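2 proteins. here.
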Amino acid sequence: MDPKIPEQVTEQATQESSSPLSDADKIRLKRLAKLAKLQQNSSDNLAGTSKNVVSSSSSVSAQSTSSTAATTSQQLQNKGSQEPMNTTSISPKPKRPLKSFEDWQDDVISKVLQITLDKSSAEKSDSQLIYLNSLVAELKEEDPAKTSFKLSQSLLEKALFARLSIDPNQMSDDEETFLAISKLPRTSLFNYLLDCWKRASEIKRNLLTRASKTLDPLVVNERVKVMEALKDLLVNYVGLVIQYPDMFPQVNNSMDSSPQQLVPRLLADINSPEGLPLDFIQELAARVDEEGFEKVFGQALVGLAAQMRSRNILNDYLNPLNGLVTLTEIKSLAAMLPKLRSWNPPDLTAKAFEVASLLGPFCRLSVFPSDEPSISENYFGNIQRSKADVDSLVISLRGAMQGVQKTLFNIFNNIIRSSPSSKEAVLSYFARVIKLNEKRTQMQVDPSQVGTDGFLMNLSSVSLTFAEPIYSKIDRIDIHYFRKSKRIDISQETKIKATQPESDEYYSSVGSEVAPPNFISEIFFITLAMHHYGPLQCYNNYNNFNRDLVELQKQYDRMKAEQPNWAGTPAAAFNEVLLKRCKDQLEKWAVHKIAYDSQLLDPTTLSRSLQFYNLVINWVLRIVDPTGQYPAKQISLPLPPTPPEEFIMLPEFVIEDITEFFSFISRYNPKVILSCSRDELVIFIITFLKSSSYIKNPYLKAKLVEILFYYTMRNENEGGIGMILNTHPIALEHLMSSLMSFYVEVEQTGTHTQFYDKFNIRYNISQIFNSIWNNPIYRDKLKEESRKTDSFVKFANLLMNDATYLLDESLTKLTELRNIQNEMDNTDEWNRKTQQQRQERENLLRSLERQATSYMALGNETVHMLEYMTSEAAEPFLTPQIVDRLAAMLDYNLNSLVGPRCTELKVKNQEKYRFQPRTLLQQLITIYLNLCKSKEFIQAVARDGRSYRKELFSKAANILMKYSLKLDRDVKVLENFVNDVEEVIKKEAAGEEELGEVPDEFLDPLIFEIMEDPVILPGSNISIDRKSITTHLLSDATDPFNRKPLTIDQVIPNTELKERIEAFKREKREKRNG
């Protein structure tokens, strides 16, 4: 019920309104008038329970989602009930009360409010009671015959008003007034009312527990109603003094009397004397409407946020965070939060938003050095700590951040569950964060224009928790979400395989009558976008940081190694400063790395993201599955040639983020993948390698291979997928052909770095081949693919091209390396060079070392692939387009390894550069042996007049025997092969002598050999041998003479020229025989 207003208040407002007033008086009277207009208590309700005096709306029952408030909630449900107390909780033998109900009321009201109507009680030396002289005078006027008065439920309103009206700052000569003022607590009225409420709550609690065991239930019921009425009245007046702090006289220079005075109370534990009891907050919240909420709780929440801005994960962050949790656990308050102006403030940058928005300061708690560098330096500053100490600190920090993220989820969850409008407000808040942080994906990011890593990571964790219940509801994720909702703007995002005009038309063609997406879809796509702009960018930054850290360490090591050279020189002082600066930076970055690791490599966090990305994988596969039933039904490969429109119109980052996430965990914490099924990843990779036309960006497909490579290199207990690749039906059926197809595809990626990119991609492919080669099913698949002559010849040709280029480059770099090493070994000559000259040569040496190592590693794997593939499928390597070049490549490298200039390759620390000449020689000889029975191969080696030498094979055989690299029978086979080659050479020499001088028009314009099957190129109209142009087109699909696109089916047989060549040959043979 509304609080009852004493008549003198109304009279005072009426009298003073007729005389001139100051502005302050007018404001005070307006507020008093507001109080006076409230309805009086209904005469039939002696309980005196008050309605909301803060607003005109009726109060609602306080509710709580907190388990700690369960008891209080049950008590509140009994409030105002006319039914007697449950007698089962009362003593079976109740006693009569020692005091009358009137005396009891007077005692407890006096105790709670610390007031009295008995002057003698107030005058006692130890009494803290305040004598309400004004109320006694009023009561005497109403009943002159009465000489003594007692406090009662009917006088509650008048008594509390009289107490609050006493001016603590008044100077009075009146003894009674002076005594009353001297006893007033020197605190705000809010604190006084709160203390009164606590005393009333304690008395009520004792009535329900202790007194109920000894007193009659009717007596207990009667007394409880008095305490409920008193508590209600106190809560109502709390609302008044918070909203209108100058309605009643306050102590001068007292603590803040504005709503901000709630902040220290909210920061304290709710069970401590300084805290706000949950029951009290619930009762106060039940009596405020939207306007009252803004005034009573709005400023307090802003104050909590302000407190949070100065806190970090090491600095008492729990108090404001727990204060916010306490408020949001009250449903009515949680529903009001999004209505505050600071909830989602407009016109702010991302950085300003996370500081100025209501929940921003709570969500930006971070351990990232980029956000809070002092945390890593203070927490991990002693770099000399043992690994066990560091691990313990990391675990502690991870636990703290996990606790923060769980608490943040509870806050958002409380708000979402409070009302439909609050749910929409939370989704809009997340979308706003996403929109403001779109620039985080740019190549060059201005930190002042984007949110912090911690802010995005925490909100990503919150969205992940919301997403967890939808993992089993994949069929309810709306594939048309981006058409139905503009909450997440993807209009400018690159699509998987659609142009911008196509995308614009697709997303603008949806009708207005389409139903909005469901909450499951909202959460799925918000989580997807939040990860894209949050964790995925953090992973990218972490990669860059690690790269910079490695480079800094190398720089420091070089400076340290060169220290003896410049010690004692004029540059020593300057170099010492640089060395110390470099060391300090290394130590600083080392502790920063630990801080990054504690957050980004947290197994729990990564495992949760892994579960989500497995869901994304299944959802994407479900879209491209022609049946639309995956994962309930296994997908069938290959996919249809034309991808679904819903798939190609998706933003490319959907696929990119999957690849980036799995690439990150495979490199830094591969064991995380053991927490989930790995089948989804394998199926996803093979699906889009097998149907590679579905994805336009070659970088994404290369990432798929990279992930496969990383996980095939791991043991099963480290997350390796070797067992899956060797048992899963889709892998067994499609992996070999998919990898071979992509090996060919990466020859032309369309990027300016394609020439170098292809080697890295093919290295990964070669490693995957190595890991599965022992499985006979895969070897059978290779043979099956080799029967597809055209496609396999392209693969074999590129394999041979790579081996030729990589070995040539690596051996050349080794030669250059040896030259510089020899220079440096000649101390006198080296010292005669200037410092700059030495520096230049040393820089060149380091560059050559990097190049030689890289080329040799790639070359070794390529030769190894040739070795085992020619053992299983030799025929494709013997085609006319390949066999000559393969023979030339083998002969050239054999010459390099055992020929006259082999000593130029003897560099120091050969293993450092992956150079293993004996192993390489063994592999080359194995390839010879795999092909040596073929007539085509023997003839090709015989035709190689540039590098083939019989004595090279003899020397190679001696090395193989000396180091037991081959069996005797293998060496014998090699000798027979060389003899066969020599026999062919003799015959070829006789044939060339027979032909004599060959007309130029009969010679191939590329290799200058007599043509066997001349054809005309349609663009340039030049005649060339079919074998020659076919070989060229395997590597370059253009006319070699005008660079226009060309395919082999476009060439025109030159029958007339072929007949003339045949006639020329016949004539020469006849002349010799005649």
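next one coming up
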Amino acid sequence: MGGGRRRKLLMSKIYGLARGKVSFQEDHSHIGGPGFSRVVHCNEPSSLEAGIHHYSDNYVSTTKYNVVTFLPKSLFEQFRRVANFYFLVTGILSFTELAPYSAVSAIFPLILVIGVSMIKEGVEDWRRKQQDDEVNNRKTKVHRGDGVFDHTEWKNLRVGDVVKVEKDEFFPTDLVLLASSYEDAVCYVETMNLDGETNLKLKQALEVTSSLHDDSNFRDFKATVKCEDPNANLYSFVGTMEFEEQQYPLSPQQLLLRDSKLRNTDYVYGAVVFTGHDTKVMQNSTDPPSKRSRIEKRMDRIIYLMFGVVFVMGFIGSIFFGIETDNDLEDGRIRRRWYLRPDSSDIFFDPRRAPVAAIYHFLTALLLFTNFIPISLYVSIEIVKVLQCIFINQDIHMYYEEADKPAHARTSNLNEELGQVDTILSDKTGTLTCNSMEFIKCSVAGTAYGRGVTEVERAMDRKKGSPVRKQNGPNHVEDSADIPAIKGINFKDERIMNGNWVNEQRADVIQKFFRLLAICHTAIPEVDEGKISYEAESPDEAAFVIAARVLGFEFHKRTQTSISLHELDPVSGQTVDRLYKLLNVIEFNSSRKRMSVIVRDEEGKILLLSKGADSVMFEMLAKSGREFEEDTREHINGYADAGLRTLVLAYRELSEDEYKVFNEKFNEAKNSVSADRETLIDEVADTIERDLILLGATAVEDKLQNGVPDCIDKLAQAGIKLWVLTGDKMETAINVGYACSLLRQGMKQIIITLDAPEIQSLEKTGDKDAIVKASRKNVLEQIASGKAQVSALSAMSEAFALIIDGKSLAYALEDDMKKNFLDLAIGCASVICCRSSPKQKALVTRLVKSGTGKTTLAIGDGANDVGMLQEADIGVGISGVEGMQAVMSSDVAIAQFRYLERLLLVHGHWCYRRISSMVCYFFYKNIAFGFTIFLYDVYTSFSAQPAYNDWYLSLYNVFFSSLPVIAMGVFDQDVSARYCLRFPLLYQEGVQNVLFSWRRILSWMFNGFYSAITVFFFCSRALELQAFNDDGKTASREILTGTMYACIVWIVNLQMALSISYFTLIQHIVIWGTIGFWYLFQLVYGFLPPSFTTDAYRVFIETLAPAPSYWLVTLFVVIATLIPYFLYNAIQMRFFPMYHGMIQWIRHEGLSDDPVYSEMVRQRSIRPTTVGFTARREASRRS
């Protein structure tokens, strides 16, 4: 609706609880003081006064680097890896005379490694920048002057600009609401992207600006806003507006927050007060952290250990070298090492300065033994992780066809962390749910109606092995992907559909039931091309109105004072128009847990129509109104087991006198401006909401995303704990908890709230210090009580659920209480934190991460989840329909929560196993190679003579041993994806880190030392004394070391072949190709000029290849070295298999079809304290 047309409906008159005018009774005295110094010149962003403040622009960046910082920051990222820093130092020293090899051969691998890593980092950050640009380049309308509004990009907005936001658009900045398309300047705002709530919030501008309802009104508009400085509190705003020389107070009621959405309002005008990183949503986020996986951190410690080994070897060698050098010249006579010419040697071998020569030898040895540190480790892992990300991105099983959105691994640094997640911290709205409700069942006059099947019921059927129930009857099997034809209703029952309800025994009650649904709400109908749609404050309210319409009670018109329905008349069978005069609306709130309307029908009767939670509604029934109570309670319990949200419906007829007394008191309470206004309204409402007559109950499905209960069940069987952190009310969160089987009947609930009467009475006094003290004490007592319950019943394997609200959580996260809170939470099977602010979500995530020391994963879809995603070890963003803020701040983006199952249990497990095996193998192969250099150094009396040619040393890690390990890191699978999902406990190998424990790491290192010793002594003894070839010549240094090198190449590559569980053609090519490339390299390299090849000139083609002993020694040494590992692996697999080994046996022995054996293995996943459907079924079986 354009600026010239106006809605005449005054929105505030629809609401019986509409706010009163803001007054200066609120404390605004601190405006202009510290923390409240912001001054905004509305409609004058370019004025001299505005320019002196230098407020930030509206450009938002989530990148780690920019053009200036990329080089220094990325270099810092690379050289904070200890191995890279070590190679930088040795690369510099290689230019000195200390180096036992050429500088070029030393520096080339380092440049290659650092360059590849920096390019990868740059590409990933460039992608983040492109997503930032997508948001920053969104369009909005801004006042250009002379009453003209024109489109501009979000990033161009400045503090003081007046913008016009139209229906279903996001607010580009934090705005002060000036006017809207409604005459009384109200608007609907959806804040789901901020706090997770889907119900619409009502905002209202100051009355003095409410007349600015056209573009032309802003030609001469001037105002000054003075308000608080930028802060992270989403729910507070203190300020004043100076307009036409008058001061008016501002409150959160006038603040429109960036990334929230305008709904049910054609347009609003607002003045920009906070831009860019000053906005409240960005204040709640933090800078993108540089996350490193636990394996990478442990890799650093292993490298420190290797440094120690290198240092010890160099130190021992330098001592022996010093002794030998000192003994080389005695009384001027040359002794054993005559070939070093100790009588005329330089300082490196001068017997007269043996201690100095020993020090120089030590430095040379540190350079010589650099091959103990795998320089290609980091770059190989980087390559593997990028390729792993490609497989994740292209996994068709994580592609959401409906929205055309595949999975997207936005960073590759954390792939292996996906296989080690201990705790998942999840948002609710938009993450577990679809933000849609479906009316699915109801109980009317003690009779249950509705054959709709919930996601919970379908999953229970599948778990029991029963046919999945059909909506239209129990004897049909339904496709679980069936989608209801009408959004908001999934109700099937021929007894009351299509007007058949008139034939039911209690048709009169059914008529009142659905009439109540059509009247008791605050929804607004919109007619478009003859079709009616509804704008409602919450999805369940819209579902009620749609259900009433489908069943013959169509709400089609609302005015300030009336509601009009098309009703099916049971007598005539025709649709008739009915008008109900709207007298009062008593809104729902969390303390009342109900909503009521008072209307007058066409016969003049005054009716009170009420709907609310069963916990309060049954208490309000009259004795004569409880006819159906027993049956209704039974139905409600059944609905709760099916994961449905229920409301009880009741009514009563009021007399004229009774209503008159109530209306006077109600209006008096509404117009009160005292601090306890809400309490007065509730007390008046309680006087009229009594002696009700029960009609029945509704059951709506808070529509979970497809597959959420099954996914949670699998994650629970994998031993992963799930916490739900939501901004929603406690009742809503609990209902969703039941729907997705985080909660179940019989699970003991520990609920921590500050609803105690003594706390509420203190809040009325306004004594803040007393409130804080009492609240802190109350929360501490509740936590202590909860811990006592858990400790007392833990031996009985009881399952507990912890539910805590936002107020209590604020105290529970304080330094002196958070450890107790965490201990309690860890002892519970599931944890739900309600009414959590974005900051609290991040703090809870930090507490779990630091307190448990285990890997945490946060998953969410809104801007309110950004802090949580960045604080967790892994942040997963849901690329849903609302905003991109969470995705832009995440490490991995998926379209649906259910894809988390495959992301963790399949890709996470594979990546963890592959990276762990890669790292262990890298240290094995480098020790196997590097220790032969040390043994040769010992053999040559510690002369620091390199065993191998310079380029053999440099290219070992790059070409002769890296490609097979890269192939393993990309393609190897211990078990298939199907078995990963079938036996979810396999995931615990990553959580418990059994594949990268110190025991496993040291055993691989021991294998490396054993391989080096075997190679060196077998080769040296085999070639030492006898003739090497037909000419009768003995083996020279080049022949010995050439044979050793060939053995090493064969051994490390065949060792890889023995370690692989899943061979592919690519792995065969790289393993055998690497070995073949070694021989091809010797041929080509040997023909290069001697000045370049030095001691490798034609050695292979002229000496090694023609000699049979070379091939025999190689064959014998390779077999002798690999046999111990082969035997150890075979014995372990046969007699002491790990969990993945048991699954491999199932497949190998053909036991996958044996239900008894497979169930025995799978039952290890199920524990009494587990959540999910399987645990729910097991609990029912035990009880």
